[in-house]
Amino acid sequence: MSITTQQPAGRGLPDLLYSEAERDLRGAVRSVLAERSDWPAVLARTETSETYDTALWRVLAADVGCGGLLIPESHGGAGAGFREAAVLAEEAGRAVAPVPYLGSAVLATVAALRAGDAELLSGLAAGTVTAALAVPFAIRPGAPGAAARPGAVRVEAPRPGDPGGQARLTGAVRGVADALPASVLLVPADGVPAGLYAVDSTAPGVSLSPVASLDQTRQVADLALDGVPARPLASGPAAADAVASALTAGAAMLAAEQLGLADRCLELTVGYLKERYQFARPAGSFQALKHRLADLWVAISQARAAARYAAACLADDDPDTPVAVALAKAACGDTATLAAQECVQLHGGIGFTWEHPAHLYLKRAKATSAAFGTPDWHRATLASLATLPGPPQR
Question: Which CATH architecture has domain 241-385?
């Protein structure tokens, strides 16, 4: 059964192939990650208290320009789009890179773009600012309440001596991704006026508590605010739009990350089965294993089409974006988990050891599958968008 959506007259489908600029970006990012973040280094870092590689992110954000991919040239950015950002996400997924690209270069950047904050955008583009959007990693695009629970963070009345235009925030948000290395936190808050606020992560009253995370390459943290000074970025519907746009973009870029992860898992598994001999034959020559790899390759190819289409829709501000993002997150979430599981199993005994990188991919796949809506939730969303009937009521 195939699902098609009505296309406006005269509108052609986007080209999903990688452009020359995207291939060049891929080469630059892959080179940096191969040199500075190979899997033994990533594994070693997960056993320390500094799970994020802030030095690597400075190189990617400032030197390579990844921090400002989505930011216009007028603010010092690269003036690229979501297709290029998706390429970066794929490479970060391939390397399970412990960098806050998703939180800073996607979520916070999209929110800042929608809010139109030039000061924050210039810092993000220069790589001098790392930001995070203070929402739970498990929040679903379109969920009511900017921080998943209305009233989680509230605006307080200014105190005597506070400069004009400053607010104070009190409350908590649990399970925020990429908050630990952030210098600026973008916090949605209820109250008067409700809106989106920028908070210095080192300000008095800010507490970030690392949480024991399944995926230590992207550790989440609980955020607590106690009368913290905050600068308003947007209020009312503009703030809600900024957060909603960031979550939609985050789901699409996370799908691209899952695609890169799945592709790398297949690559590692095929390479191993070509070298591993059993009964005097390469393990990859056994028909049962060939079939499993072929099925995985098909799933990855389908996921790639979905992820590329979602990125293209975002780049073109296409009305089909909600459908494309739901489809991509559902397809790529399941495919990444399948690819990581096959990587562990088909590597045999070595795939179950701590010294092999397979478990890093499996943990990242499982953690991202639950982030920004599970595959099942996105399939249900896709069904409603395509006006398909729901399950029979009993």
Answer: Up-down Bundle (1.20)
